Amino acid sequence: MMSLSRGKLNTAYTVNSVNTDHEDIREFLFTLGCYPGEKVTIISKLASNYIINIKDARYSIDEDLAKAIMV
Amino acid sequence: MKIALAGNPNSGKTTLFNAITGKIEQVGNWAGVTVEKKEGDVKQSLNLRNEDLVVVDLPGAYSMSPYTSEESITRDFVQNKKPDVIINIVDSTNLSRSLFFTTQLLELGIPVVVALNKGDLTQKKGNTIDIPALSDALKCPVISTVSTKPANNGLLELINAVIAVGKSNKKQIPPNISGAKKASTKEEFDKADKKRFSFVNTVVAEVERRKVSSEKQTIQDQADRIIAHKWLGIPIFAAIIWLVFSISQSWVGPWLADTLVGWIDLLYAGVASLLGEEVNPVLAALLLDGIIGGVGAVIGFLPLIMVLFFCLALLEDCGYMARVAVVMDRFFKKVGLSGKSIIPMIVGTGCGIPGIMATRTIKNERQRRTTAMLAPFMPCGAKLPIIALFAGVFFGDNAWVGTSMYFLGIIVIIISALIIRRITGDFSKSYFIMELPEYRMPSIKRAVISMFMRAKAFIIKAGTIILICNALVQILQTFNWQFQVVAETAPETSILASIASPLAVLFIPLGFGLWQFAAAAVTGFIAKENVVGTLAVCFSITNFIDVEELALVGGSAEVSSIFGISAVAALSYLVFNLFTPPCFAAIGAMNSEMESRKWLFGAVGFQLSMGYTLAFLVYQIGTLVTTGSVGTGFIGGLIAVALIVTGIIYLMRKGANSTRISAEMQSVKI
Known about the structure:
The complex is a heterodimer of chains A (71) and B (670). With 71 residues, chain A is an alpha+beta fold. Chain A contains two helices and six strands; from the N terminus they run ββαβββαβ. Chain A has one domain: Ferrous iron transport protein A (FeoA) (SH3 type barrels, Roll), CATH 2.30.30.90. In chain A, the strands form two sheets. In chain A, strands 1-3-4-5 form a four-stranded antiparallel β-sheet. Chain A has a two-stranded antiparallel ribbon with strand order 2-6. Chain A is globular and about 25 Å long. Chain B has two domains: 208 residues, 3-Layer(aba) Sandwich (Rossmann fold), CATH 3.40.50; 432 residues, no CATH class. Chain B has 26 helices and nine strands. Chain B has a six-stranded mixed β-sheet with strand order 2-3-1-4-5-7, sandwiched between helices. In chain B, strands 6-8 form a two-stranded antiparallel ribbon. Chains A and B meet through helix 1, strand 3, strand 4, strand 5 and helix 2 of A and helix 3, helix 7, helix 8, helix 12 and strand 9 of B.
């Protein structure tokens, strides 16, 4: 297990957990389809942001969130 | 029949709403454009049997889970207002996420019709969706729609399906998700939601065939690497903003304005000759200088504003806004804001009110309030005439004046955000996540519609509030307190002058301690366009844009001599008007978004202090550089500014103390 922030581009990772005290962000990620067992792919790393693919959509997340998503 | 439009953010609800009602609500290519529900009737051409069909457009939502705090307008409406039919707009390019919300809507018992929107984009990607199979799986009608197309867009079929299910009086059959109905604790909801997603995954696997799987790199991803690049992102953003304001303020705008102003001059001359010599001079002056002159001076800037709105609409439509948020997040995070704060600021360059309302997509309360407080620092469309006037009269119409005001706006926002973070003592971190919509060709048609909508609003405002204000200003400066017409040699005896003069004293250290400027700044709080109108009335200038005489493009020595202030003082006045509190309507919007009197008064006080301090610095430093000595009223102004600064430092100190106390007690919020 590692955090998504250390992941490689273009590799489909399976989400293991969302490691944060903030319940709402975990809930929010869930509604987007980012929850244990689902796939997430890093498309690019820009500035300090990550562009990720969840389900069929692109999202920009910051490094803190990328660190919280364990894969 | 009441129809609710519900769906994920940026699935095209408002575009569909506009298409079926014929209304012109604001749309944009990013998540969270619509922040309030909107109502309208289905238009005649789609409502062939003349039914009573009311449509309600709701803000986007990803889910209806009772444990997510956001998107409550949508949830409350669907659950409490009991619409007869729900149209669930599903982005067909993102079926696997959108259907999660669909399964929740299906459980409410209200008949659902799915509008499978963006059908054209799915086709372009070479994906296919088996619509009959999807309809079978969801047990509700599914209609493919392309709401951006004028005809053959599936909307008639959609409305017919809605009428059919609405009249059948049958309850919606929910999908078979075990445990969803009985869930009452959080664990049970979570469990049910997971089952929901696996139901969706099964359905999608059955009905959807994708040519290219979505996690593969596309040209759009390549474009993002440049547009949202760590270092290139900022210059690209700067270049785009510069382009927008050069087009509206230097290239196309003034060229159009020249023509319009010619007409206003003709009107003035026509009315003047019509009135002849017989008419009471006071009445003639009220009509000519007060109303035609004052309103005309404002209307003259209409073309500049229209071009600005046209450019902004293109920008909002193409998908760039979400990328700017990504670029700015890094910087805004350092000062305690979110990257999302940039969107209210860009929207605010059109008009502050929708800008302030756009802050609702920011979840962190302090970030939201701070953004609502600072977004008005971006010069809005109504401040554009002030910028254009002073740029034209004192600075030979240089594009840099306008553009630099926008960047000064951003710098002031960043500094202010730092100060506010200190004052509130809230250093909590928040996560940033934002959906990146696909780029698309902006629609010229939509931009034109948006432009004329704003133009109409501007003309209405000019013909009502601004007309009344100008007439009032004209009357107040014509009469003295004994209601006698003031002598031309003694304009300072007028009612207006005697009210504004005490205020003007405060402005001496800023370089414009004349009652005319004070009066204009005050009427500016009613509507910022009034600044230009009041100046026109007070100085009896018919219009500011004239090819032959007082040209916007150079040759404006006459106006500057009428104003009787230096270029530095003019810049200071410009800065003062841009960075003081916005108009009352925008302050009202701040009030409703901040939901706190303390924040509202703090915000207005802060904005006043900021405007005063900046104008003081511009005038005094500018005068020192240009003439070698400080300007008038330096000592008095310095004391005032020192008091402001001391006050703010005191509040920051207090904030720092409260941080230490609350750090242990409070868990950080997102």
